[in-house]
């Protein structure tokens, strides 16, 4: 028995499942097998219990149970019929004697019992079964969260690693750029920044002709083409019929 499995984990009404298959598939298969159970008096309800509307199969002499629990009913063809669904027991409440008796008479088994995976042992490690529900996307997200936390710590203590180095270079560039902008010092990577801060209008003027061409150039070209169309028929009218006035 592996030492990592506690003896307390094997105490009580437990069992062991040995498998060479996929652990997630085995866990899902185990969860399918459940047995319905009646509501016993004093049991804490694990879920909400709702009595559905419809025919109960009980004769009118059984209406006292419904009256005690304030369940609206009517007699239809000598059978008690529930008019509307009623939430009989709320999750976390204890089952009373009246509720238990009514559910037993209606043959309603609101609760279910089955095997529950408590722990998973794999390759020398014991872990919670919730780990089996993790998808690749969940693992990737947790990995990036871990990298982000490690990077934040390394940046705080100025310790360079593969995760922190790109941020350190970026921050260093920003600091040097701030010094260059505030002084007369110059280096090639700061050329455009200093040029823009010195004369922002230069960049606006560079975009001006393009905007003008986009807005005013198109109407001008259209007007020129229209004028050309008007002049063209007058020049070619003598040749359209294949002869001149002197023929």
Structural key phrases:
Large ribosomal subunit protein uL10-like insertion domain-containing protein; 247 residues; large ribosomal subunit rRNA binding; 3-stranded antiparallel sheet; alpha+beta; Ribosomal_protein_uL10; 13% strand; Molybdopterin biosynthesis moea protein, domain 2
Any chance you could write out the topology, listing elements then pairs?
Blueprint: H1 23-32, E1 34-37, E2 49-51, E3 54-55, H2 63-68, E4 73-76, E5 79-82, E6 86-89, H3 97-105, E7 111-114, E8 120-122, E9 125-127, H4 136-157, H5 165-182, H6 191-198, H7 200-240
Helix pairs in contact: 6-7
Overall description:
By secondary structure, the chain is an alpha+beta fold. The protein contains 7 helices and 9 strands; from the N terminus they run H-E-E-E-H-E-E-E-H-E-E-E-H-H-H-H. It has a domain of 81 residues: Molybdopterin biosynthesis moea protein, domain 2, CATH 3.90.105.20. The chain has a 3-stranded antiparallel sheet, with no helix packed on it. It has a two-stranded antiparallel sheet with strand order 1-7. Helix 6 crosses helix 7. The protein is elongated. 6% of the residues are buried.
Tell me the strand order in the biggest sheet. Answer: 3-5-4
Quote the distance from N terminus to C terminus: 121 Å
Report the top-level CATH class of the domain at 34-114.
Alpha Beta
Structural class by sheet pairing and helices: alpha+beta
Strand content: 5-15%
CATH fold field value of the domain at 34-114: Molybdopterin biosynthesis moea protein, domain 2
For the biggest sheet, the summary is: 3 strands, antiparallel
User: Can you give the helix content as a percent range?
Assistant: 40-55%
Question: Which oligomerization state do the chains in this entry correspond to?
Answer: single chain
CATH architecture of the domain at 34-114: Alpha-Beta Complex
Name of the CATH superfamily of the domain at 34-114 = Ribosomal protein L10, N-terminal fragment, domain II
Keywords: Ribonucleoprotein, Ribosomal protein
Protein name: Large ribosomal subunit protein uL10-like insertion domain-containing protein
Region (Disordered): 221-247
Family: Belongs to the universal ribosomal protein uL10 family.
